[in-house]
Amino acid sequence: MEFNMSDNIFLDEAIKKQPGITQHFFDMVNNNDLSHAYLLNGNSGVGKKATAMSATMALFCKNKTNEKPCGECNECRRITEGQHPDVVFIQPDGQSIKVDQVRTLKAEFSKRGVEGRLKVFIIVAAEKMTDNAANSLLKFIEEPSGDVVSFLLSTNKNLILPTIISRTQVIDFPALSNHFFDTELSNIKVNPNDFNLLKSLTNSLETAINLMDDDWFDKAKLAVEKWFNYLYKKDYCAFTTIQIEIMPLIKDKDNKQNIINMMLQIWRDMLSIKYLNSPKDEIDFVDDFNNINHFVDNITSVKLISIIQIMLECNNKMAINLNFQNILESTTLKILSKLK
């Protein structure tokens, strides 16, 4: 799909990340088929806000080219800069969107457009509305006053009231393509050798950024590599690595799950090399390719599959809230027993 690119940051991002959805909104605007409320759902970084902003520009732009907003006129610029009087934004105040913010929105709903009949509301992180705020918003969506279009942006629609979902057009945004996500990871200075592992853990740019915070990802990767290499040598230091290297990294449930996933992925790398002859650039633990490759040559298929089954049991144990250190230590001992 071909587009003429402008220098408008939101329009460019929407066209690059979600060309199909963006074009769909342009078509609906041009055909007067736009509904009054949309829920744009998907991981952070996939272009939800950019798409909502682009659709809004399409509604107000006075200088369209090929029925697409120009991104450069006064209307488009004011929308981009958050200065358009008929385009209202709401986002969390602290950790949540509060009922007072929705009351302000209600006041805006009751007004006619300052410069025309149309008003647009963009609600960022809609899943963070308090119950009171969500119930108040429901009334606005059920009985919109005047010519109003609402965009609710969410990373998890399951946290939004079902009654709100039922009154909006839900559009689920697909994850970014591998190539585009690689570009995003490169922009935040991620080592290219870590791209595959990060993408196995998440397809959310925001989550990837959080994983890199305070070098947590690098420390976790190094700890898992040490654990694995001790297992490769059938060295019981793999057991002590749990307490010394891994447990100090565990601060919350997400940390636990990411450690388990990393541990599982390094064994899956072995499986990929053994059965698919995967090259270095296709595995997750790129830096450990040589050790993994040597390990593959010295382990039977039966043992490898058995170890992966042991690793998969970790998730079942996590689900019933067993002590995390005990889970990892017992798993390590089982693996060492299999490797004898």
UniProtKB/TrEMBL annotation:
<dbReference type="InterPro" id="IPR004622">
    <property type="entry name" value="DNA_pol_HolB"/>
</dbReference>
<dbReference type="InterPro" id="IPR050238">
    <property type="entry name" value="DNA_Rep/Repair_Clamp_Loader"/>
</dbReference>
<dbReference type="InterPro" id="IPR027417">
    <property type="entry name" value="P-loop_NTPase"/>
</dbReference>
<dbReference type="GO" id="GO:0003887">
    <property type="term" value="F:DNA-directed DNA polymerase activity"/>
</dbReference>
<dbReference type="GO" id="GO:0006261">
    <property type="term" value="P:DNA-templated DNA replication"/>
</dbReference>
<protein>
    <submittedName>
        <fullName>DNA polymerase III subunit delta</fullName>
    </submittedName>
</protein>
<dbReference type="GO" id="GO:0008408">
    <property type="term" value="F:3'-5' exonuclease activity"/>
</dbReference>
<dbReference type="Pfam" id="PF13177">
    <property type="entry name" value="DNA_pol3_delta2"/>
</dbReference>
